[in-house]
Design brief:
By secondary structure, this protein is α/β, with parallel strands linked by helices. It has eleven helices and 16 strands. It starts with a strand and ends in an 8-residue tail after the last strand.
């Protein structure tokens, strides 16, 4: 089958297009004919080799982590899906590969596609939806009336997280450029801070949660807005000690992670707050919950551009500019990318 893959880690030049082996369908796998996939920052991190200490990938490695499509075969022990089902999924980290014609995914990581969405819209949802849900509900236990700051509210995770936080009853502040204020307000943001001209840490305080998608200085300053007992959940900062307990990592990697996270752990202790680094985990059950929210018009997808399958390289290059509003999607049914 045709796919976009890498033979080694590196820059944009290592991405190749060509024939790869057909996916192997296990007894509890569904084989999906991929109609659309979406681009995520983790695709770039994987290509660059930034996660090589955590994930032992083998080459050639087919890229892509989100997908929507149609089930064309099922393993012998699959009971929850049938041929012809329209589904969406985020495969587990060892079985990525959605920039391809087909993929085999464990049935526990698949859900029926929201009926109200196209394949392209559905493909934009899994990673950002699961990330937002697991950060706000599983880690932060966000309650009605609490206050949350979401960095980069017009980004892929941000556009979903703002809507979910509002649905959960939170007061939502977010950062965005002035040109994107109207969008994030339409998604439910109560307060919008222009990160180019304003310092969010000098404007807001007493917050219960920060969802950090930026890392670096933005992560460090996030502790300034929390009240005692608050939490920063980051998808871009250094891994934390709690994460290492869930991964079979060598001792020297665990030591390195402790060193990398020392500064933020110290800050959290000083402010009597918590810090958690999060790598989203696949869950078909949670995707089904998200699909129900979408079909109930609680949450809507936000898509910046749709690229044809032949232009995966261009889609990833655009993602690397950091200018996208919402998600970037690759379609096997579509042609030209909007300007």
């Amino acid at each position: 089958m045709e796919a976009w893959f890498i033979r080694s880690y590196g820059g944009q030049q290592v991405l190749e297009f060509g024939d790869v082996a057909e996916p192997v369908v296990g007894p509890r796998d569904v084989l999906v004919d991929i109609r659309a996939a979406s681009v995520n920052p983790i695709d770039i991190r994987v290509r660059r080799g930034e996660l090589r200490r955590l994930l032992d990938y083998r080459f050639p490695l087919v890229m892509g982590t989100d997908l929507a499509g149609v089930v064309i075969a099922t393993g012998c022990d699959v009971r929850g899906f049938s041929v012809g089902n329209e589904v969406f999924a985020r495969p587990n980290r060892q079985r990525i590969g959605s920039f391809a014609e087909r993929i085999a995914v464990h049935e526990d990581e698949v859900a029926l596609k929201p009926k109200s969405l196209t394949f392209e819209e559905a493909a934009s949802i899994p990673l950002v939806g699961l990330t937002s849900r697991q950060a706000m509900i599983d880690l932060a236990n966000l309650k009605p009336g609490q206050k949350v700051l979401i960095h980069a509210g017009a980004g892929g995770v941000g556009t979903f997280a703002v809507q979910l936080a509002k649905h959960l009853g939170a007061y939502v502040a977010t950062t965005a450029s002035a040109a994107k204020h109207e969008l994030v307000r339409s998604l439910g943001a109560d307060e919008v801070i222009d990160y180019r001209s304003q310092n969010f840490a000098q404007i807001i305080n007493g917050y219960d949660m920060v969802l950090d998608t930026l890392g670096g200085d933005a992560l460090i300053r996030s502790f300034d807005v929390l009240q005692r007992g608050g939490i920063v959940v980051s998808v871009a900062g250094p891994p934390d000690i709690e994460m290492t307990r869930d991964w079979p990592l060598p001792f020297y990697v665990r030591l390195a992670i402790r060193a990398m996270s020392w500064r933020v752990r110290r800050l959290a202790k000083q402010r009597q707050c918590r810090y958690r680094f999060m790598l989203m985990r696949p869950s078909g059950m949670q995707l089904a919950e998200i699909a129900a929210l979408i079909d109930a018009s609680v949450i809507r997808p936000v898509i910046d551009r749709i690229y044809p399958f032949d232009d995966v390289g261009a889609a990833i290059a655009y993602s690397e500019t950091g200018r996208a509003t919402g998600k970037i999607v690759v379609s096997r049914r579509h042609s030209p990318s909007p300007e």
